Amino acid sequence: MTDIIIVHSKYGDATNHWYEWLANNLILEGYKVTLFNIPVEDRENLETWIKSMEEQIQVRTYETYFVTHGYGTLAALKYIEKTAMDKIEGLFSISGFKEDAHGIDENIELDVTIDYEQVKDKVEHFYGLCAVDDKYVNYQETKRLMDTLGGSCKITSHGGHFLESDGFYTFNALQMKMQSIMSK
């Protein structure tokens, strides 16, 4: 059985956008899903994200995929780097970015460094999704992250930041793509 770990963005929590919808659908399909959630008051400091991840997430098998969104990608990458774990199968990043990103929301603090070679040693495959019309994360930053990680990146013309305000209460395309990749 494949494990899925969903990590929300900085301005959302596990109950908004498409996170719960995706978790519920994947559970119905037979996947084991962990829906990470961090309280609003703890979101300013990346170290607090990592501490919460250490409390909530347990990587138990190679057949594990992270699904991350925005700042949640940065947090998940740092968690993967710091955590003693065996190699996992993959990471899906929705509008993710590196810690030295430009063209992202100016309210995002990027006081962190990530050893991308160490992350690549622990994750087999990386997949990115971004949109040209994203007003929070420039699509080129997601592409640059995937290039750094040796992953592939799908760039769409529309989708924004894949938020409820962009019409993303559900995310059928993501679920179908994930399941096609995970069933190989």
From TrEMBL:
Keywords: Hydrolase. Gene3D superfamilies: alpha/beta hydrolase. It holds the Pfam family Ser_hydrolase. It comes from the Bacteria. One of its GO terms (molecular function) is hydrolase activity. InterPro entries: AB_hydrolase_fold (IPR029058), RBBP9/YdeN (IPR010662). PANTHER family: SERINE HYDROLASE RBBP9. This is Serine hydrolase family protein. It comes from Staphylococcus gallinarum.
